[in-house]
Amino acid sequence: MSAGGAKVLAFESRRAKEIAELIRINGGEPFVAPALIEVPIENNSDAFAFADRLYAGGFDMVVLLTGAGARYLSRVLATREPEELLLEALRKVIVVARGPKPVAVMREWQVPVHVQVPEPNTYRELLRAIASTPAARVAVQEYGRTNQELIDGLQQQGREVTSVPVYQWTLPADRAPLEEAVADLLSGAYKTVLFTTGVQMDHLLQVAGARAPQLIQSLQNTLVASIGPTCTETLRDHGVTPALEPSHPKMGILVREAALAYANLRP
Description:
It is a single chain. The chain is an alpha/beta fold and 267 residues long. It has two domains: 7-36 and 173-265, Rossmann fold (3-Layer(aba) Sandwich), CATH 3.40.50.10090; 39-169, Rossmann fold. The chain has helices at residues 16-25, 45-55, 67-78, 83-90, 100-109, 123-130, 148-156, 176-186, 198-208, 212-220, 229-237, 251-265, and strands spanning 7-10, 29-32, 37-40, 61-64, 94-97, 115-116, 137-141, 160-164, 167-170, 192-195, 223-226. The model has no long low-confidence stretch (mean pLDDT 93).
């Protein structure tokens, strides 16, 4: 079973070519409108303050939410000091990795991961995974926005929490594909829409502007697939309830299971 040549919309940026090919393999006609770019915070005083405290032994646990964020953090700090300083300091604390990508970065850096958060890798699984781990002073590497539920949960566990922002998400310079996606959504051109992060929805509505209410209505009439619970929460906050989340929060599985779901709905 496949998407049967139906038009499928996705907003992936970094892996745009890959998701387009996955859609084709699963029988869909892809249109990918990149919805965000990651912008490092180069003059990041919070990152340097975190590093100074980490080097002085001021943290018991460091939570890494993304692999890209860990790399950005390293690059920012490397503008001031040798890269190895960060790695040496991380080897002396409890390192928590939210998913496989930060685990891969830590493996590359030869930094032990003490806690790997299980799927679907939301703040809820993270809090449960570390509930019995003693660590009073915790630093959290953020990923473009503050996860207040995670911060609150850590504090409720009796921990002192320091947020470390390392990059921000902004709209791409070329917004023409997003504009086209908005117009086509409003006309009902797409049968399936794929979201791989909630920020894509934020930016889509930002581009839609005054057309946002109509866009939300169009999405409600489309098969919307969300990569996982965190993304789904953002979509629901905007009034869109996804038809499905994949059995595992992986892009390939998302595309395949969305195609199967559409195939089952086809006349």
